[in-house]
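Deliverable D5.2: sample structural annotation.
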Amino acid sequence: MAFIEQMWAKARELRKNLVLPEGTDPRMVQAARRLADEGLVGSVTLLGARSEIDAAAKNEGVDLSGVQVVDPGEAANVDRLSTRAEQPTWKSTRRTTMSCASTRG
């Protein structure tokens, strides 16, 4: 199995949640759709103004069903996002990251 396929398999196994902060960028909209379709993440979230994300998706012909959209400017999200930003959620990646050396046969 090639390196990229091993990384994809590991990503599918770990089922991490991914947040794409530049959610209005057409490339991020396309990436979110692909990640959701291929099951590479547990969930994918686009951050940005909902109207701009919806417009980018429409322009790209991308269906956002199954992709979460969070508008940081909406009052309901401000407290939740600021609280989460104050609490580090990442852990050491040594346990979950494959090194190049470990993929060589």
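Annotation notes: Residues 92-105 have pLDDT under 50 and may be disordered. The two ends are 9 Å apart (CA to CA).
The annotation will be released with the project's public dataset once the embargo ends.
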